[in-house]
Design the sequence.
């Protein structure tokens, strides 16, 4: 039986496109009806925090970014929940830190959460916990940046056969380019198929 467990990672810039949440949930619902088991990795908490506070420019201070993420996370999760609810699909919104992947017990628990969500017909949505985790906001020696390595680690933990990176330019995107390149190499080395494209390409990559 074909492995249709895919990890779909969507960057902040792609989520700024008009109707992006609506389009993504529509395509993932169609994939779900075909027997697909999507795992969604979503950036965007900081951007939602900026919207709440009516900020036009992204702050450079890490603590300010963490504050915005803490405030924007609720809105991001609720936006996804609202869109998936249109298809009677529930979500589990999970925010790990990189330490969760360095401890075997936590790593196994991540695998369990994904599999139990699938049994309960839920979709897991993952985003690194920026409010408590500096590494997603500023490049760290462990390599976590822009949620890309998170997508790879989730694919490995869950046994996914494919990772789809949705970027604003359909290639490396305008953010996290180095991180994305390293993530793709790591995924390919693990035998995972990698697709990179724009939001409009998602339906053809599922």
Sequence:
């Amino acid at each position: 039986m074909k492995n249709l467990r895919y990890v779909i990672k969507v960057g902040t810039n792609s989520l700024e496109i008009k109707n992006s949440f609506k389009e993504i949930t529509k395509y993932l619902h169609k994939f779900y009806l075909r027997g697909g088991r999507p795992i969604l990795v979503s950036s965007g908490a900081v951007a939602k925090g900026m919207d709440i506070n009516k900020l036009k420019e992204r702050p450079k201070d890490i603590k300010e970014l963490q504050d915005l993420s803490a405030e924007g996370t609720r809105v991001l999760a609720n936006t996804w929940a609202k869109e998936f609810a249109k298809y009677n699909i529930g979500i589990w919104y999970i925010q790990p830190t990189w330490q969760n992947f360095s401890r075997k017990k936590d790593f196994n628990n991540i695998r369990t959460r994904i599999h139990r969500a699938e049994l309960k017909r839920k979709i897991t949505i993952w985003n690194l916990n920026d409010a408590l985790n500096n590494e997603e906001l500023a490049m760290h020696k462990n390599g976590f940046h822009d949620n890309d390595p998170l997508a790879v680690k989730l694919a490995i933990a869950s046994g996914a056969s494919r990772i789809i990176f949705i970027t604003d330019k359909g290639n490396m995107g305008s953010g996290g380019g180095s991180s994305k390149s390293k993530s793709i190499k790591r995924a390919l080395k693990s035998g995972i198929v990698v697709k990179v494209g724009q939001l409009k390409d998602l339906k053809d990559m599922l």
Observations:
- Confidence is low (pLDDT under 50) at residues 139-144.
- Residues 3 and 161 are 6 Å apart (CA to CA).
- The helical segments are 12-15, 20-33, 45-52, 62-85, 104-119, 148-158, 177-189, 202-205.
- The two ends are 16 Å apart (CA to CA).
